[in-house]
Amino acid sequence: MQGGGEVDLRRETRDPRPIRGSGLDRTQVRVERARVEDVPQIYELVSTFARRGETLHRPLGEIYETLRDFIVARRGYLVLGCVALHVNWADLAELKAVAVREDSQHQGIGGRLCRAALRDARRLGVAVVYALSYRPTFFERFGFRRVDSARLPRQVWGECYRCPKFNCCDEVPLICEVSPVPAGWADSFRPPLDFREPSGAPRVE
């Protein structure tokens, strides 16, 4: 971990192995925190797959507002791929917005992004990371396992209503336990459905 609480992504920033069939080596691809100037490219990248129904559409304003969630893979100023880690609760975060340019796929970039996001989750002390995907086998390579969607009620009602497939969802929910999980975590990693803020607790409007 670097000073100031920044995530140390150096282990994934450079990889000396050649990228198969690309004429590039991985030292030309950096995995690092997204910056404001990356937002238009992230938006276009995610929107490309959203138009095909392969991921959830994310408005430009939302990407700016959640920019600190994003990690990108870049070559120079070109964003080749992105991923976001969004904390939902004390022990729960979502891995989402995983996207890699078509001309940069099958080069290990998606894997580098996911591993970087999971390291970030461990740094934050998050116990469980979940993902919803049409390609569950990709996530299973990184320790995710399939679960029933009923395990993730807050996410389903918090964001999925925006999806055009909300009433007939065919995404597969998966979870990955990235930090030691307390006993009984299956009941405690999310707040109860009737959760209410303690009386007198400060509210941010």
The proportion of strand residues reads 15-25%
When the domains are counted, the total is 1
If classified by CATH, what would the architecture be? 3-Layer(aba) Sandwich
The secondary structure category is alpha+beta
Instruction: Tell me the name of the CATH homologous superfamily.
Output: Gcn5-related N-acetyltransferase (GNAT)
Major sheet: order of its strands?
Answer: 1-2-3-4-5-7-6
CATH C-level label? Alpha Beta
Question: Could you characterize the architecture of this molecule?
Answer:
- The chain is an alpha+beta fold.
- The chain has 7 helices and 7 strands; from the N terminus they run H-E-H-H-E-E-E-H-E-H-E-H-E-H.
- The protein has helices at 10-13, 39-51, 60-65, 109-124, 136-140, 153-158, 185-188, and strands at residues 30-33, 70-75, 78-89, 92-100, 128-133, 145-146, 172-177.
- Strand 2 (70-75) and strand 3 form a beta hairpin.
- The two termini are 33 Å apart.
In short:
This protein has helices at residues 10-13, 39-51, 60-65, 109-124, 136-140, 153-158, 185-188, and strands at 30-33, 70-75, 78-89, 92-100, 128-133, 145-146, 172-177. Helices cover 26% and strands 22% of the residues.
What characteristics describe this protein?
single chain, 205 residues, alpha+beta, 7 strands, 22% strand, disordered N terminus, disordered C terminus
